[in-house]
Structures are given as structure tokens and as C-alpha cells.
């Protein structure tokens, strides 16, 4: 035999060819399997999130390739292998097909539903308050922006203050009730604070008392949460 992909002759130059392949079907099936595996592996490995919607289609390609593979391999008849090799190959084939079918039926492994990947609950996000340029000016009407934020404890109760001054000026986020104090943070710097309990938290800037804001924290069920 001259190579693995070698069809048409069962006896060539006195050498019995073990494989009776259909080159085209075999090539297409291998291509489908490679594309299917890649299409499943890449999204779920985290390399590329944008390919995730392709995963289910890739699973279909993989299954089609697995079905076509034996058709391509054994078109001219079953390979003349020793009983031991035939047993191993048959077992591997049945095992692979069973794994794919069972995992597809159970919706596990590479066939996990796309919407079930990642966090199951609502995704927490942060609230940002910008300290506007010119806040250091006593005549400034807008300083903390927005001046009043309403958050839900444990859901979006982490607040980020960003000093967006265009000149070098330090500001603070200081609780009127003495509950928290950022200390001075400069231009383009930020301060982060997470509120754990419900309440109304007025705050101000220590060197610029005209700068005032309020964080109102609520407690309750998370939006979209069950029970
Ligand atoms: Cu200030």
C-alpha cells in the first residue's frame, strides 16, 4: 500500500491493502470533526467569547463527521484486521459515539446550553460617580455626578468615585456621619467603597464643603432572582 488514503485496489503488488477508503467522504468527515472540535473547544476554553454561539452548530458538525467517518473508511467492506484490533477499534468507535450522544442528551460537557455557561444569577455591576472638572470652584453647581445614587446591597452596592479634574486637584469622599472617608485622591485617581447595609449615606468633600452627594442603599431580593 502506498499510503493511508489509498482506494480502489484490494491487492496491489502482492501487498494486501487493509483499508478500502473513499477519499472524498473521508476527507470531508475529518474536516467536519476538526471544525466541530475546534468550534466547541475555542468558545468554552475562554480563548474567544464571541465564538460561543457557534458551539451548538459545531456540535452538529462533529456528530455529522463522526457518522461519515466509518462510511469513508469502510466503503469497500470492513477492514481485514486481526480480531484483536477490530475489537479495540469497534470499542473505541462505540465509546466515542456513545459519549457524544449521552452528553448531548444530558446537556453536559461540550453540549452545555450556552445560556447556562457562567453566572446563573444576575451579574453584579458597579456604580460610578464622576467628580466633574471644576468641582474645586466654590461656584460649581455640579460636582459629584450623579450627586445621588440608589443601589441594592450585594447587587450593585460597590460605588466607584473617579476624580475627573483636568487640573491637579485632590478631593475626598467623606461620610457626614463619620462612616467612611476616602482621604485625598488626586486627578485621574479613583476610590472604591462597597456598602453592605441599607441606609441613606450623605457625604461631602473635606477641602471643598460645597461638594455634596448621597448614596441610598436598599436591601431586598435581587432583580430576576427566584424565591
Ligand atoms: Cu473636593
Instruction: Summarize the main sheet.
Output: 4 strands, mixed
What is the mean pLDDT? 77
Q: What is the tally of beta strands?
A: 10
Structure annotation, total helices: 3
User: β content, as a range?
Assistant: 15-25%
What gap, in angstroms, lies between the N and C termini? 68 Å
- Taken together, the total number of domains comes to 2
The distinct bound ligands, ions and cofactors come out as: copper (II) ion
> Are there runs of 5+ residues with pLDDT below 50, and where?
6-18, 113-120
Protein name: Blue (type 1) copper domain-containing protein
GO molecular function: copper ion binding; electron transfer activity
Keywords: Copper, Membrane, Metal-binding, Transmembrane, Transmembrane helix
Domain Blue (type 1) copper: 144-217
Description:
One of its GO terms (molecular function) is electron transfer activity. The protein is an alpha+beta fold. The chain folds into two domains: 11-116, no CATH class; 127-218, Sandwich (Immunoglobulin-like). 29% of the residues lie in helices and 19% in strands. β1 (11-12) and β2 (15-16) form a beta hairpin. The longest helix has 24 residues, at 83-106. Mean pLDDT is 77; it is low at 6-18 and 113-120. Copper (II) ion is lined by residues 135-136, 171, 205, 207-208, 211.
Amino acid at each position: 500500500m502506498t499510503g493511508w488514503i489509498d482506494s480502489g485496489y484490494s491487492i496491489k503488488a502482492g501487498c494486501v491493502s487493509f483499508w478500502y477508503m473513499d477519499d472524498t467522504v473521508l476527507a470531508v468527515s475529518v474536516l467536519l470533526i476538526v471544525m466541530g472540535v475546534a468550534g466547541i473547544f475555542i468558545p468554552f476554553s475562554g480563548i474567544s467569547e464571541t465564538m460561543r454561539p457557534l458551539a451548538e452548530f459545531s456540535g452538529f458538525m462533529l456528530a455529522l463527521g463522526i457518522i461519515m467517518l466509518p462510511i469513508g473508511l469502510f466503503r469497500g467492506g470492513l477492514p481485514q484486521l486481526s480480531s484483536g484490533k477490530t475489537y479495540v477499534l469497534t470499542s473505541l468507535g462505540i465509546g466515542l459515539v456513545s459519549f457524544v450522544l449521552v452528553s448531548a442528551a444530558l446537556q453536559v460537557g461540550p453540549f452545555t446550553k450556552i445560556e447556562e455557561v457562567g453566572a446563573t444569577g444576575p451579574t453584579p455591576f458597579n456604580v460610578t460617580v464622576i467628580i466633574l472638572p471644576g468641582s474645586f470652584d466654590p461656584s460649581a453647581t455640579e460636582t459629584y455626578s450623579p450627586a445621588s445614587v440608589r443601589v441594592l446591597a450585594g447587587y450593585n452596592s460597590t460605588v466607584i468615585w473617579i476624580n475627573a479634574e483636568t487640573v491637579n486637584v485632590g478631593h475626598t469622599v467623606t461620610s457626614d456621619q463619620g462612616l467612611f472617608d476616602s482621604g485625598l485622591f488626586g486627578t485621574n485617581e479613583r476610590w472604591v467603597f462597597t456598602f453592605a447595609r441599607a441606609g441613606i449615606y450623605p457625604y461631602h468633600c473635606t477641602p471643598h464643603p460645597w461638594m455634596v452627594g448621597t448614596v441610598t442603599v436598599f436591601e431586598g431580593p435581587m432583580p430576576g432572582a427566584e424565591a
